[in-house]
Amino acid sequence: MPGSSPGMTNCDTRTGRKHLMDRLDPAAPPIMVAPVTHPPRIWKFWGTALWGLFIFVALFAGQLVVVAWLVLRQEGPFDLAAAIHVVGGGLTISLSVIMGMPAALGAIWIATRLSRTPFAQYLALRWSSWRDLAIGVGALVVLVAGWDLLSRALGREVAPGFMVDVLKSARADGALWLLVIAFCVAAPVSEEFFARGFLYRGWSESFLKVPGAILLSSLVWTALHLQYDWFFFGQVFSIGLLLGWLRHRSNSTWLTVVVHGLNNLAATLQSIWLAGAS
Question: Which of 5, 21, 179, 268 is the most buried (most CB within 10 A)?
Answer without folding.
Answer: 179
